[in-house]
Specification:
Helices cover about 45% and strands about 15% of the residues. It contains 6 helices and 5 strands; from the N terminus they run βαβαβαβαβαα. The chain has about 140 residues and is α/β, with parallel strands linked by helices. Helix 4 packs parallel to helix 5. It has a single domain, classed as Ribose 5-phosphate Isomerase B, Chain: A (3-Layer(aba) Sandwich), CATH 3.40.1400.10. The chain is globular.
Length: about 140
């Protein structure tokens, strides 16, 4: 499994920690490469392109709150990024919404971040008809 990961300067330390903690997976780093102030949309786009081109199976984006990365990623047709703060939200983002990316805040405790990411990785899409229908409705909105 290939996991794409990207951050802005505020999420840099968490991104580096995740690269170590996710050593059992192939982790592809899309930047940033330091804590020098930078613009998060640059790195969100790199991650989104990798998801859409199937260079990675899904993405993890980290910034101060997770909100900016989520907004930026969701501007890309075919990216379904959930801003998550709890393991339950991570599971539901995958099982109900078939999210292909999550965005998290760098302010969360390391243990919670790892629980969120592990739950997202290990939760399959439910394939329940009502969720399939709703996800198709969302995809149709991209064409409006």
């Amino acid at each position: 499994m290939k996991i794409g990961i990207a951050s802005d300067h505020r999420g840099y330390k968490v991104k580096e920690m995740l690269k170590e903690k996710l050593s059992g997976y192939t982790v592809v780093d899309f930047g940033t490469d330091s804590e020098e102030p930078t613009d998060f949309p640059v790195y969100a786009k790199k991650l989104g392109v990798a998801i859409l081109s199937k260079k990675v199976d899904f993405g993890i984006a980290i910034c101060g709150t997770g909100i900016g990365m989520s907004i930026a990623l969701n501007k890309m047709k075919g990216i379904y990024c959930a801003k998550v703060s709890t393991p339950s939200e991570a599971r539901l983002a995958k099982s109900h919404n078939d999210a292909n990316a999550i965005a998290i805040s760098e302010e969360l405790p390391e243990e919670l971040i790892m629980e969120i990411i592990n739950d997202f990785i290990n939760t399959p899409f439910s394939n329940v008809n009502k969720y399939i229908k709703r996800n198709e409705m969302i995809k149709e909105m991209e064409n409006d």
